[in-house]
# Entry
Amino acid sequence: MGRAMTGELVAAAGQSGRGVAAFNVITLEHSEAIVSAAESAGRAVILQISQNAVNWHGGRIRPIAAAAAAMAEQASVPVALHLDHVDDLALLRQAADAGFSSAMFDAGALPYQQNLERTRQASEWAHNAGLWLEAELGYVGGKPDQPASAHAEGVRTDPDEAASYVESTGVDALAVAVGSSHAMTSRSARLDSDLIARLSTAVPVPLVLHGSSGVPDDELRRAVAAGIAKVNVGTALNIAMTRAVRDALSAAPDLVDPRKYLGPGRDAIANSVRDLLQVISG
# Structure
């Protein structure tokens, strides 16, 4: 199987009534664990690298993208590469040459008209470069520079506005605000499944759920059934990895070989991915 196109995986998921899981990659161990779990489960996955992760790697996109691409190419299941939460147009313009088939341009913090205009520009450029483009409308909680609650009045995505936004920008998928928050460490979010269903009817492109780490299994299943096609997961993997690494170091305080603690961390990510794939992809 190997390398796949994000748009094709998302379209297939939506048509089958399943979701496709998109897992955030920070280190090589993330990529290895995600692909290993996907192969074990026999499910397609999306490896996504965020602008924040690129910044953490010194602003260099190609090394971490090349590692993820190599994992995708050798995988026995379809694996796509996606550049996530980009608000830097200069970084977006590196996506195609770095091996990504898609990107998410994030102007969600801007007022509606500014969001629309910047996203339209990003969409035009992305399509000319052969990239599938996701955007965001509404407020998905948990971003450090946007302190509003995901449950504050007026922050959720309006179906009529979403339909107009998609038509005006030409984006290929829409991340929607339906009650989830980024970076949640407890799985206590409650989603508005009725709103998801109305958005799915109103919007002619696939819907994306961000902040899924904080959403319980039953809520994720309902969200996919209501119309979510792409489910983004990041923090849950980091929780699993950190817990395993901390346990390994606590059990052996003199341990200095990183393979002895990164190995359990990688295994913990794989276990988390495997469990989530059963929920998201069926």
